[in-house]
Design brief:
Blueprint: E1 11-21, E2 25-33, H1 37-40, E3 41-42, E4 47-48, E5 54-55, H2 63-73, E6 84-88, E7 93-96, E8 110-117, E9 126-130, H3 132-140, E10 147-154, H4 158-169, H5 176-182, H6 192-209, E11 219-220, E12 231-232, H7 233-245, H8 264-281, H9 298-313, H10 322-331, E13 343-344, E14 349-350, H11 358-380
Parallel strand pairs: 3-9, 6-10, 11-12
Antiparallel strand pairs: 1-2, 1-8, 2-10, 4-5, 6-9, 7-8, 13-14
Helix pairs in contact: 2-3, 6-7, 6-8, 7-9, 8-10, 9-11
């Protein structure tokens, strides 16, 4: 049985390089307009039929992730060189270019034209192995001609598609901590979810290196080994994000708006002033490992950050001395805090029983808030 001539049916033609891997499996590399990806390639969703048999391999669409990529692509002139991996059927045709190879050619790949069928009945001769969320986003992006790199291997065997899908996705993703540390050094446009993490990450870096920062050299970062570093960067990052995102947060007034840039210097000033007061009032607990001081524990950092928002919200507008204001408020509750020894009677917990769980953090936040309220009310009375 002869296969139909591809030139007699609709197809997409692209300039491509062809090489071979495994047992003479053709592998192609080429560029394609993002909007054309889903014209030639299908997404094989994982599901089971009524008899329980497994079909496909791709996870469900993550709409928020797709939309974040669309938002990034629609910013304008962006760099997006992430390759899509396809499996294609043998119906695709490759015609090698004629002519002599250039001097010094490694002869690893042949240049030519790849023609991929575009069937009128809607069926596809290619399947997305990696990059389904990106492919969906590219199909929705304003720039319909955005060039996307593609690597495609010839196979119609679903088991091979699944094998490659697993191999591509089993690699350990980048540590969020490493991404957070790198973000302040990236100057180009970023997707919305990463942009939101950039300012908090920059502030964590400043707190770690600032000469006037109480956190100087105390922050554990992926880029350095430092025996003095005892506070995890994720705890400080979360504390900052909480304050920035709360309408009543101490850092919220300095966030970027549609017409103004973020006032990072003022955020840093607030953080240094408040946490210097914390270090002074709880001097016996400051700078110790979390195993010896729950103040330096993730739960303590986040809970005390929540208290920062409460205390600084009461600061009179004319009072510029944030440190003194915070210090006075903290002194009033100091004897009821048990960071290094004793027992939180109201919580029915030993000092070192406080853990980095959402439940414990919320419990500690609420308790510190009640202590602050009681001491403030008592002072007014």
């Amino acid at each position: 049985m002869t296969r139909p001539r591809l030139n007699d049916e609709p197809h997409l033609a692209v300039r491509a390089l062809r090489t071979r891997q495994a047992e003479n499996v053709d592998v192609y590399s080429f560029f394609i307009a993002g909007a054309d990806l889903l014209k030639i390639a299908d997404i094989s969703r994982v599901h089971r039929d009524f008899q329980g048999a497994l079909h496909g391999f791709q996870r469900k669409q993550i709409r928020s992730h797709v939309q974040s990529i669309v938002d990034f692509l629609d910013q304008g002139a962006v760099l997006f060189p992430n390759a899509i991996i396809l499996a294609i059927s043998e119906r695709a045709r490759f015609t090698q270019s004629r002519g002599e190879k250039p001097t010094g050619d490694t002869r690893i790949a042949d240049a030519g034209t790849l023609r991929i069928p575009v069937r009128l009945d809607g069926s596809k001769d290619a399947w997305i192995v990696d990059g389904q969320q990106r492919s969906l986003a590219l199909s929705k992006a304003q720039n319909r001609t955005f060039p996307v790199p593609v690597v495609a291997f010839v196979s119609q065997d679903l088991s091979v598609h699944r094998e490659q899908f697993i191999l591509v996705n089993k690699a350990r993703p980048l540590s969020p901590r490493l991404i957070n540390e790198l973000l302040p050094e990236v100057q180009s446009a970023l997707p919305k979810d990463l942009s939101a993490r950039k300012i908090p990450s920059e502030l964590v870096n400043l707190l770690h290196v600032g000469e006037d920062s109480p956190f100087r050299k105390l922050v554990r970062r992926p880029s350095e080994e430092n025996a003095e570093a005892i506070v995890t960067d994720t705890a400080i990052l979360q504390m900052i994000k909480n304050s920035m995102n709360s309408p009543l947060g101490a850092l919220a007034p300095y966030k970027p708006t549609a017409s103004t840039s973020a006032r990072v210097d003022e955020m840093y000033h607030v953080l240094v002033a408040y946490w210097t007061a914390v270090a002074e009032v709880f001097a016996e607990a400051w700078g110790k490992p979390p195993t010896e001081s729950r103040l330096m524990h993730s739960a303590g950092i986040i809970a005390m950050g929540s208290l920062m928002d409460r205390i600084l919200l009461r600061r009179p507008p004319a009072l510029n001395d944030i440190r003194a204001h915070a210090r006075n408020a903290l002194i009033r509750i100091a004897d009821k805090c048990h960071w290094t020894s004793g027992r939180w009677e109201e919580l029915d917990r030993e000092w070192n029983d406080i853990q980095s769980t959402n439940k414990d953090v919320r419990m500690l936040e609420d308790h510190l808030s009640r202590l602050d309220h009681a001491s403030t009310f008592s002072k007014v009375a």
